[in-house]
Structure formats: C-alpha cells, structure tokens
Amino acid sequence: MMKVVKFGGSSVANSEQFAKVKKIIDADPSRRFIVTSACGKSSNEDHKVTDLLYLCAAHLNYGVSYHEIFQMIVTKYMEIKNSLGLKLDLGKEFQKIRANITSDLNLDYLVSRGEYLTGLCLAEYLDADFVDAADVIAFNFDGSINMKKTAELVRAKVDISRRVVIPGFYGCLPNGVIKVMSRGGSDITGAVLANIFDVDVYENWTDVSGFYVADPRIVKNPLQIPRVTYSELRQMSYMGANVLHDDAVFPVREKNIPINVRNTNFPENPGTLIRNDFTEDDERDAPPVITGITGRKDFTVITLVKSHASAEPGFLRRVFSIFEKYQISLESVPTTVDTFSVVVRTKAIERKLYEILGELKAELHFDDVRVDQHLAMVAVVGRAMKNMPGMSGRILSELGAKQINIRTITQSCDELSIVIGVDNRDFYKAIQAIYNKFINEERQGLSE
C-alpha cells in the first residue's frame, strides 16, 4: 500500500506540531509521499507565515520597511530548527530570499517560501528526501497544471523507495518562473501526486476530524460524517463546507482514489472517507438520509416578469448572455410560466447591478423587474434522499413550522441535493431546524 499525506498549516505550526507529524508518519510506512503547507498559527495571537509573506510584499510595494515582519518569519522557523535540533542552514535560505525580493520582487516566489522552508525543515526532521515543487509541478501559461509534464518530472525526480517531502501550493511556469495556486492549494498538490503515483489513499491532515453534518458554529456538537461521496462533497464545498479545497477532488476522483480527511491533533479518529461511491460492504450500515447541511449567506434574486416569455424561443439564452457579458455566474434560475428568477452572489453583482437591470429592460422589455437582496441559500445534501419519498416536502414542512419563509427551492434531478432560499436572518435558524428534525430525532429514534 502507498499513501500521499498532506499536512495543513496548523499541523506544522511549530515544533510541537512537527513532533505530532513525525509520530503519524512513523506509525505507517505506507505514508511515503508527504506534502506540506506553510507554517500556520500556533495561537490566536500568532500569524500564518503566508499572511506575513503577503504583508512583506505589500510593504515592499509601498516602499515601507518589511524587516520587522520578515523577522517574525525568521523567529518562527528558528524556533522549529532549534527545538528539533535541525542542522539546516536557515540563515543562508533567508539571505537568499531577501536578496531575491529586494532586487526583483516576484510575489508568487515570495509567498511560496513558506511552503519551501517548511518542506526543508520537515524533510530533515523525517529523514526524508526533499524535492522542490518548482522542479516537479509544471504549470501551463494559463495557470492550469500540465499533468503529463508534471508526471514526467515527478517520476524522474522522486525515489519511490524513500520518504519524500514536497512543498504544496506552488510550481513553475514553462519559463521557469514560480507560480502559486489559490489559497489552500497544497490540497491540490497532494491530489496531483496521488493521481500520478496511483496511491491507495490520499490522507489530508488538518485541525478537524473530517467533515461534520453541519457547521459547529451553527449547530452544537454536530455529528461527524464517516463517509461521503465526491458528488456530495462538491455540493457541500461549493455551498460553504471548506475543509478541503474544491479543486483537490478532480485529480483523485479520476482514479477513484479515496481521500481521508484526518485530524493531526487526534490521529486516532478515523476522520471522513471520501470516494466516488460506496458498496454495501463499505457502508456497513445504511447511509443517513442527510449527509450534510450547509450554505451561504448574501445572495441577490432578480425576478423578471413577462407574459408568455416561456413560449419565446431563445428567451433564457438572451437573459443569460447579459449576465455573461458582465462575467456574473448564476447560482440558480427558478422559473414559472411568466416569471424567471436569477439568483447570484451579492458581492459579484453589487457594483454592476443597475447596468445589468438597464440592459435587461432595454433588450427584453419585461413587464416587471424586482430585486431582493439579503438572501441565504441552504443546501441539504444526501445520496440516500432519493430513496426517501416526500423528503423535500418534509423539509419544507419543518421550516414552515418554525415560521421560516421559503423564498426559492431547487432540487437536482438526481435528488442528491435540495437548495432552499431563505432570508439571511433565518439562515442559522433554518440549518438548526433541519438538523434537529432529521439528525437529532433520527439519533433519538435509534437509541430507543
């Protein structure tokens, strides 16, 4: 068996966390390919290294001294080096970084140094080979990862008989310039390597024990999700469950490689297992009707009214083209015979709203156009809902009983998710109501 293991910033925040990582690696010889993020926060008063590096760049751009902030980074890594007895010449590394950024500031190079330095420290501590991500993660000029080129480089540079540490979050463009991913991109690096090595499991170690049925900030002590499909995860991640980077799913899903989200601070917890689907043997027990309840606040609904619009060929396409012109993604489009509602994120449209409304009226001659803001979208996700007749009706009935006004509802044809629009002020209340009705009551029924 072979595994790729990725450790997030909280897992490598200081020397104590490094010791936990080593214990996890030593406990399982199959944990051979190790991806690391930059050092995260040790406490609420601490700072993530990547945040400090971005701040250094801002100071450099404005001609303000960055040395005090940079020294905070130096202090953090020197604590790790001295506490763990590492021989790595960090002074030389910091000198090189200073020289590079003062002569020619490349933002991507600078902010990638957190992963780079953490990788160097972790490789020595684990007695592992260090392979720079710049040497193996190949980007195309459009920012996408060149999987074929990356696979060639990885196989040429990595000795699979040894433990290997590779920094996450960055790689290299065809011209040799460092390129970083979006924040949380180390998840993607791990997934890419899992695909290339065709491993048995991709373990993603973080500071939570996998996914929960609902956000712990909304529901007290929510149930942990033991198993979730990639499709369910995509729905939940898109609507707000942000344990794992959205794009980390695709490289492993292609080969049906399971992702196991684990907690570095509680390694005995099995975490959440993610895969394409689960057999009856995998499930052991029937899956819960609802896998997860998540959502986001702050959406805008534009309601367009025009008699006989549904009978007019190309009508929706013309509406969509106006939003496309302004680079606005549509979340959902609830429709009736003469009414079309377009749901978009408020932040995306707020500066362009009146221009879009003007074009919609001028081009399509609506009888009426209404704008409602402060809408929240609640997503109820579950692969077993399709086997439960009347599920959407039961959810709506429960929200009605709690005096929660339902603004929109969308259900996918595969019955994997039901997305309900409510007022922002009812967002927490709606999630709590659904959780209490379908999770707590089910638990109570099983215990009786």
Can you lay out the helices and strands and say which pair or pack?
Layout: E1 3-7, H1 15-26, E2 31-36, H2 49-61, H3 67-84, H4 90-103, H5 107-125, E3 129-130, H6 147-157, E4 164-167, E5 170-172, E6 178-180, H7 186-197, E7 201-206, E8 227-229, H8 230-238, H9 249-253, E9 259-263, E10 272-275, H10 280-283, E11 292-305, H11 315-325, E12 339-345, H12 346-349, H13 353-364, E13 368-381, H14 391-401, E14 406-411, E15 417-423, H15 427-447
Parallel strand pairs: 1-2, 1-7, 2-4, 3-4, 7-9, 8-10
Antiparallel strand pairs: 5-6, 9-10, 11-12, 11-13, 13-15, 14-15
Helix pairs in contact: 2-3, 2-5, 3-5, 4-5, 11-13
Tell me the number of helical segments per DSSP (H or I, 4 or more residues long): 15
Strand numbers in spatial order across the main sheet:
3-4-2-1-7-9-10-8
CATH topology of the largest domain: Carbamate kinase
What global shape is seen? globular
Domain module count: 2
User: What's the total count of β strands?
Assistant: 15
- Report the sheet with the most strands, covering strand number, pairing sense and barrel closure: 8 strands, mixed
- Spans where pLDDT lies below 50 across 5 or more residues: none
- Cα end-to-end separation: 41 Å
List SSEs in N-to-C order: EHEHHHHEHEEEHEEHHEEHEHEHHEHEEH
Q: CATH superfamily name of the largest domain?
A: Acetylglutamate kinase-like
Averaged pLDDT:
91
Structural class: alpha/beta
Strand coverage percent = 15-25%
CATH architecture of the largest domain: 3-Layer(aba) Sandwich
- Overall helicity: 25-40%
Report the top-level CATH class of the largest domain: Alpha Beta
What value does the Rg take, in angstroms?
25 Å
GO cellular component, one term: cytosol
Enzyme class: transferase
EC number: 2.7.2.4
Domain Aspartokinase ACT: 378-438
